[in-house]
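Milestone M4 deliverable, item 7.
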Amino acid sequence: MQTGVKKKTTAASSKKPKKGAGFYQMNIDEFKKASCFGHEAAAAYIVLCGGVDSKKSDTARISTHGCLSVSKRVGITETRAERAINALLKQNLIRKHESKQIKRTHVPGEPTYYINDDHVSSDVAISQEFLHSSERMENSKDFSCSKQSLAYFCENALEGDDIPHANAVVDALTLFFALHQKQDFDLFAGVDPQAASATFRPINNGEGWDYSCHLMPMEGNTSWKFFSMIQEGDIQFSKDFLEQTFKGLPVWEGCPSDEKRGLHAIEQLKKASLVYNSIVLWKSNPLAGKSATPIDPIYTLYVASKRNDKNELMLQHSIHDAWLKSNTLVKEVAFPVSGNIRPKPVWTNSSIYTYVLDGHSKFGNEMLLSQFRVARWAADGKMNDLLKADRIRTEKWETKLKAAAVVSIQAALC
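Output delivered:
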């Protein structure tokens, strides 16, 4: 990361951003145009969009961010930040806001640039926390970058085979925004699986641990059944999704395929904790038709993010409790005890997941999928309602499962 911004840290500037820091709209098409003039120009465009008040949608998109703000939030010198902004000005991606009062220096909070908003359909809502990136440490020349931030990503994204660093940054950020557009917690319980997902197959008898099998009734309550599945390969992107994502981005000599660019980009996003996996049970195969349907997800089984697992309800722990309480499996085999630590299932970190269904539900074509969820989504009312819908869907099954486990225990005692 570049350093060179001479600014003393104050007590106010060193504070961590509060939860619910708001969000802003950023246009993907305009971002792609900015990326043609380098990854720093593209990053500057992201920052300038972050200076627009998203609540005033009926007014022109006027940014209050300037050169110093870009420097701080991208982690580059003010000289390079100025160069990036000038590139945006030359291409008419932004234009200066002419103040009536002539001042030598910009005062924070004053309008600086107009942001083009010709393609509203390409807008994506991003949390302001994505820009809470770097603050100068006291008596230090270095920036302290938080993960899941723009500055952290620009510094830590790695080049790949035939993918230079600058292009790796742009590719990954573009994929990040494209996944945001495909994310809907209500319809898809995350990112649309038709854009990216991985399938599961039933485990073989004895695969993973002793006495295991694909289907097993709950002890004492045979209408409830446990199903054990193992993931088939890694998450794959659809060809159409990648083609649309990288369309309009810079190409270079030796530029690899969209698939290779996508795989490298997603690894950079994972490393920065900007995307994570979730395991979702579907009522039918959402990959078969043109699009997934609102009624298809049954519940979220697992969320692979320590940052988000408290907000994003999952059913896995309740399923494990049902295994233990109903004596469906030999505890010592399936849940070996290690000291005073809560016993973990032997299939932990094995790509094996166990889900549960009630036989009375009459499902027969259900499908387990590994999907993406994207961090730094806009915590606005709409997104919170969609996340709540996902929680309610899972909570209903959790309530039914706990009741079934109690019935199972009672039957075993009789």
